[in-house]
Amino acid sequence: MNTLKRHILFLLIISSSTLFSQQPYYFTIGEKELSGAEIYSILETQDELLYVATDIGLFKHEKNKFVSIESPKEQIRSSLFNLIENKKGEVFCSNLSGQIFIVNDKKIDLFSELPKDSLSMNTFINFDKDGNLIALSKDCYKVTKDSIYLIKQNKKGGNSFNSGLSKLYNGELLFFTKNNDTVFSIQNNSLKYFSLIKKKYAGSRCYFLLKNQLVEVFNDFYSSSFSNTTVNPKPDEAYFQMNENEIWGLGKKGGIRVMSIVNDTLKVTNSFFNDLFISTISKRGKNTYLGTFGKGVLVIPNHHLSSNIIEKTKDRINDIAVDNDNNVFFAKVKKGIYHYKNGVKPIDENSKNNYASVFILKDVANVGISKQFPHLYYEASFLVDNCSDVRYIKDICSLNNSTLLFATNSGVVLKSSNEKQDTSNWSRYSNCSLHYFFNKTINDRCISIAADPINNNFYVATASSVFQLNNKNKTELLHLDKRFSCNRLIFHQNKLWCATKNNGILVFEHGKLTQQLNKGNGIISNSITEIRIKDNILYLTDEKQIQSLNLITNDSKVFGAEDGFSGVINDIELSHNKLWVLSDKTHVKSIQVNKLKISKDTLFLYLDSITVSEVKIDNTKTQKFNYKQNHFIFYETVRNIKYKDHAVVKYRIKGLENKWNSTEVNNGRIEYKSLPPGEYTFESFAVATNKKSKLQSFSFSILHPYWSQWWFYLIILLIVLITAFILFKIRIESIKKKNKDLIVKKTLETNLIDSELKALRSQMNPHFIFNALNSIQDLILKEETDASYDYIVLFSELVRNTLNYSNKDFIPIESELEFIAVYLKLEKLRFEEDFNFKVNYKGTKNILVPSLIVQPFIENALKHGLLHQFGEKKLIIDFELSDLLICTIIDNGIGRVESQKIQERQGNIHESFAIEAIGKRLEILRSQHGESIGFEVIDLYKEGKPTGTKIKLVIPFKNKY
User: Fold this and answer.
1) Hey, how many other C-beta atoms are within 10 angstroms of the C-beta on 530?
2) What pTM was computed for the model?
3) Do residues 181 and 196 touch, judged by C-beta distance below 8 A?
4) Helix 913-929 and helix 710-781: axis angle, to 10°?
5) Which among 820, 814, 787 is positioned nearest to 802, based on CA atoms?
6) What are the DSSP calls for 540-597, one per residue?
7) Radius of gyration for the alpha carbons in the chain, expressed in angstroms and rounded
8) For 915-931, what is each residue's pLDDT tens digit?
């Protein structure tokens, strides 16, 4: 069964295409999820989704792991093959039973099924140039969702088409029969055929386009254009085209051969994974995927980057050095010095020695202790010369071809075989051979050293400073008049290049700063740990990335973990054609300098889904949510495998925050637990070493609670206004009703008062008339004819005015004064010459006063005060108008006490009817016009004797206009 599977697998993978190089750097994914699974096909889609078809079903890579995709109930057997994608992004696969499946997000659906009588032991599917789905088994078909169209029928029977479909580099599909010499081409919705290039062959064949020339591959290689070849055929080798110049072959028992066209000759240019069985190859962009049986998927992010496994232990590699022949030397602390080239060999093993550093002095020979590698130098060289005090070498350089300088933990050491070497500023080591010297001026811990042989100067970096020295002077180099800390010194083209800890790269010429490279003008960081220069290319690293900078053109390239330079970069070295990198103190990688190119891969960040309060939503359009839907989770991925551990996602919610947040791409989940109401846009992008994805955005809004919405306030306002209006209307109606009732009541009261006033006036008028008639009768009885006649005339005028005024509430003040004057004239006729009166008024005449209100008080003064007075009888009436109208009536009568005595003697003790009536009238007027309305009676005395009476009357008044 296993043999059958391998044979089937070989036939299936012949139709695929991909590419490779020398033992490349790679990493593995899916070891746990795909443990024991046999991978038959791998596909990375144009949306960077990764699928693998295995003997146990289909798997999809998401969130850094492979998850199984649900198979349909109609599926026969669990094994799946032939993962392909059309231009629409639809993914298809098939099985050996002629079933063709389309892959959806979470499941597989049966798309079509070939006729049972048209099946052979294999089924192949692929798309032609026009996007038609072609299926090949016993017969050849074009397959759609609804129909199957026969393209070519196998008339001779047997498994004639089981060689598979070959898809050329230009998209053309080819297949052939085993029983004849015809090759069929499917293009432009038609079938064409042509004869075999060389000969009939009853085995498997496949075809490729190399430099636009058709190449036929069977048990040897042949092409009319590439007749020269050094490739030896291998039985049952499966082939994959990687580019227009390169084919990779998978061996049946393991390993990959790289076959490339070099000078019109097809050659095997590299081989790797010789001890590992690779089941299939897939390539998209710069990523190459290798399928295995039971060991997951190998991912090669940059097939030009070689990963040299130079140790199989966990011992730390402290330092590396490389010569021009790509011999790699590395030092293990307390272990030894080792050499790598096609395998690891020890050079010096001694657990007692330090072995902290190893160096290649390319310009000086015979300085080390290794006869095989005379340019190699390491600390054990000191031990040979019995100089055990010199320890922990950090750097080394040559001052001339006979003199070396060492930067050590205890200062600068000079070693020279030239007896004429000037050592005036150096102290000889007492415990060493005569040619070791210790510098007198630098006794600090040294980090790096570089020499200027032409001017016989050298430069040393200590823990905190950089100095320029010669045999006479020592000068400290400064940046902005300050010391600076340096990690590496290099002297190149008469300039000193300083890789600093905080100031980027500083360049000095003749002790003066002439140039500074920093993050602001083109390099990756201000903290540079290592620099190297070759062919006017500056190579530098900040322990995370590597940058190459052309010192002539200023062209710059940056490489990081996604290019294969993962981990902490500890050291970089250059040979004549390669860049070598030590990372994590364990891995040494190399890449040809001419292959050190920026990846053409584009970094994409995908917003896979959004959940709002645990409900998945449509993230393709702007949406609105209520205030309770405020728990947002954004699921984002960078699907390209090479970025899975190295990209960083920057994100923010515009409208909530201005600063960008960061999260690792592996997190894949960005959560906001409780967003307040507002208008928002979620923005995000991914960044890697030298790439940045496009900005992703999703706009949405969270509505305010209904009680804080404008329309809610409007409704509340309307309710309040309507309620207030209703209450106001009810209140107004109530007030109107009360006012109406009050008006009715007041009207009744007014009518009643008016009737009372009229009644009072009707009572008073007869009383006055009665008194007046009595006076006329007295005159007539006294036979005073003239006086009685005059009295009758005045009386008639008085009666006429009384009748006119009695029905009026208010009369003009002048009418009231005239009435009083007529009345007093009548009374003067009665009292004759003994009675004198005076009426005074101070004020405007444009007022109205209550009618006939003063006359009763005058009458009472005459009857009770002046009538019984002997001698002159005086009566003064004063009207004074201010805020009030005050009438003062003063008589010189006998007073109220004497008048009361006279009344008692006469038996007439009741109060004057007129005064009683006027009192009631004033009370009514007071209720209408104010509390100040009324009168006051004041008894006048002189030396204890009554001299008269004074009446002060406050009268209401109205303005005429």
Assistant:
1) 22
2) 0.68
3) yes
4) 160
5) 820
6) EE-SS-EEEEETTT--EEEE-GGGT--S-EEEEEE-SSEEEEEETTTEEEEEEGGG--
7) 62
8) 677 777 778 778 777 76
